[in-house]
Amino acid sequence: MKRLLRGARIIDPSQNLDGVLDLLIEDGRIRSLGGTTTAGGDLTGIEEWDLTGKIVVPGLVDMHTHLREPGFEYKETIRSGSEAAAAGGFTSVACMANTNPVNDTRSVTEFILRKAREHGIVRVYPVAAISRGLRGEVLTEFGDLKEAGAAAFSDDGKWVVDSSLMRQALEYAASFGMPVISHCEDPFLSKDGAMNEGRVSTELGLQGIPSIGEEIAVRREIALAEYTGVPVHIAHVSTAGSVRAIREAKKAGIPVTAETAPHYFTLTEDLLEGYDTSYKVNPPLRGKRDVEAVKEGLADGTIDAIATDHAPHSSIEKDVEFEYAACGMIGLETALGLSLKLVRDGVLTMPQLVEKMSLHPARILRIPRGTLKEGADGDVTVIDPDVFWKVRVDSFRSLSRNSPFHGWPLQGKAVMTLLGGEIRHNEL
Amino acid sequence: MKLHSKDILGMKELTPGEILLILDTADSFAEVSTRDIKKVPTLRGKTIINLFYEASTRTRTSFELAAKRLSADSINISTSTSSVVKGETLIDTARTLEAMNPDIVVIRHSASGAPHLIARMVRHSVINGGDGFHEHPTQALLDMLTIRRRKGSLKGLEVAIIGDIAHSRVAHSNIHGLTRMGCRVTVCGPAPMIPRDVEQLGVSVTCNMEEAVRNRDVVMMLRIQFERHRASFPSIREYAKFYCLNEERLALANPGALVMHPGPINRGTEIAPDIADGMQSVILEQVTNGIAVRMALLYLLSGGSP
């Protein structure tokens, strides 16, 4: 089977490539990339797609998502989450360990991988827990989990408070060549918090989560990375202070990488004034200065990746009093549309955006994705950068509806997603 | 002139004109409670539900008497927020009550924003009887009525609010209401009880009680809930030493300054007994005016005009 994607602007930061080229996929792999003549050979049995005006990029990689299965299948399943990912232009997703049971043993990792392969919609990379039961007490079996197919370790949702345990996690993970992702939040400072601490939390009478709760945790991870020499990845950066700390660390040569999520460069805490729980997320939406700092961090390379932190919740968790509501918003189907605005606003170039949504997350996770090099798997996302569309939660593939972007007009989206050369989502 | 919303959710949403309307209406209702027969037929046939998720004596009694003196039918539902763990959701409870066609539901809840959640869902009016650390608008209105009846006007008055500002819905509502009506408000308390960025609400901040009281026309003390916020200060003894309103401190205020407290008072903690019972204290007038303010709100939300 051969597929020829013709006439699109092809952007592949892994080979510094940006131009109108034809892409030939054969037997599931990238066969050739070139001028329109390269495909001039044997045209029999070739499925051709005229993609003039579109942008073709390596399949997007979401390094931070919650698929909820096993345990919370009424919120999301590996299948529904995979479909949402493909619809959003993602071909690979890394799913966090806070399922029930927690992904802290080989059997859970294997279950997730088996389900994902059965559906075969996107590639799923399980992130296993750092500590058993996410309790922050005892390390999980990193070696066994790696053999089972875990891609990284994280206690996402919780910070590993015990600095000694986190040091051990970094050193032990490094001995297996595995990345560690840290959810940075000092639980003493954020205790009982429902939103960012500041004028709005004071007015709303909600317990605040101070920015320093994140920043203190970020600075500890940086100190550990410097001391051990082991890379650490900071999840969902949301504050100006975190961006500054990571920027300084990178300048000092400390091996730290970072991601943010679209809501942290799009939304501010003021939106909580009506107590709408769809804006409740952890880390919380911050102030305008933080949003600007996150954008600057993306622009100058301090923040390496854009991830969704796709966190499905049902109305059971969300249609309640604000302080009782669960944290999190879904993002797989809106992330690209929201991120493309960064390109139109001049924050990022289109190749930089592709780096942050495909090449960099693949590199941080050390997985062979994010490239259109000859011989690579045919994971490809076709983007229409111009199309106007309106976010409608009832048309989402995700089982959950907890998006604050319902009704938003967006420009640009994924119109076709190919996994191993096979079409997994198609709006053309 | 009418209220712009079907609900009274907070002082933040009320315009100066609406506040004046409520205070003027309350003034005219105050007289009813002084009669031998304390009842007028104004709201006959109206149904008012007091839905209280938090223990309350004075607020619930005040609302109930206000309804009864206007001849409305009122019932009280007292329940515990622990039911959120196992029982019905707040929205389901609200819809169930709505199906019984009440005209007004007064809700008190320990979660900030709970009345807003209900108000969005139902057709009838909702009055916030106190939500979490957010607002307690009827308390602020009765405080403002009390000040106005004593001082003639609110404009230009110097008001100190002293106590656990961060966890006080009374403070939050009074900050909005008093600043809107032209008072200059200073908030005071131990630093851990001062919420972040509170000065952005248009108030001055000090942690020094003497400074807070000096040259004020009104000194409003807040109840310290040590059972709730033990972590915010080392001991009651230390709190009382630095923040109890006593004779020496009150002497720093302007002559004739009013001493207020939303109750229930902790004698000897935030207020000395002789001050609570003294000449300048209007604490019991606040209670009396509470009924008039709540009568005014029930009346105005039922479509009445002054």
Beginning-to-end CA distance, first to last residue of chain A: 19 Å
Number of helices of chain A: 12
Listing every helix as H and every strand as E from the N terminus to the C terminus, the arrangement of chain B reads HEHEHHEHEHEHEEHEHHEHH
Coarse structural class of chain B: alpha/beta
Q: Helical content of chain A, roughly?
A: 25-40%
In a few lines, what is going on in this structure?
Chain A contains 12 helices and 18 strands.
Describe this structure in words.
The complex is a heterodimer of chains A (428) and B (306). The model of chain A has no long low-confidence stretch (mean pLDDT 96). Helix content of chain A is 29%, strand content 24%. Chain A is globular, with a radius of gyration of 21 Å. The two termini of chain A are 19 Å apart. In chain A, helix 2 (106-119) packs parallel to helix 3 (142-148) and helix 7 (211-228) packs parallel to helix 8 (240-251). Chain A is of the alpha/beta class. In chain A, strand 11 (195-196), helix 6 (199-204) and strand 12 form a beta-alpha-beta unit. Chain A contains twelve helices and 18 strands. In chain A, strands 1, 2, 3, 4, 5, 16, 17 and 18 form an eight-stranded mixed sheet that branches. Chain B is of the alpha/beta class and 306 residues long. Chain B contains twelve helices and nine strands. In chain B, the strands form two sheets. Chain B has a five-stranded parallel sheet. Chain B has a four-stranded parallel sheet with strand order 2-1-3-4, sandwiched between helices. The longest helix of chain B is centred in the last third of the chain and has 19 residues, at 283-301. The A-B interface holds A 197-199, 201-208, 210, 274-275, 319-324 and B 12, 84, 89-91, 109, 111-114, 116-117, 131-135, 166, 169, 172, 195-198, 200-201.
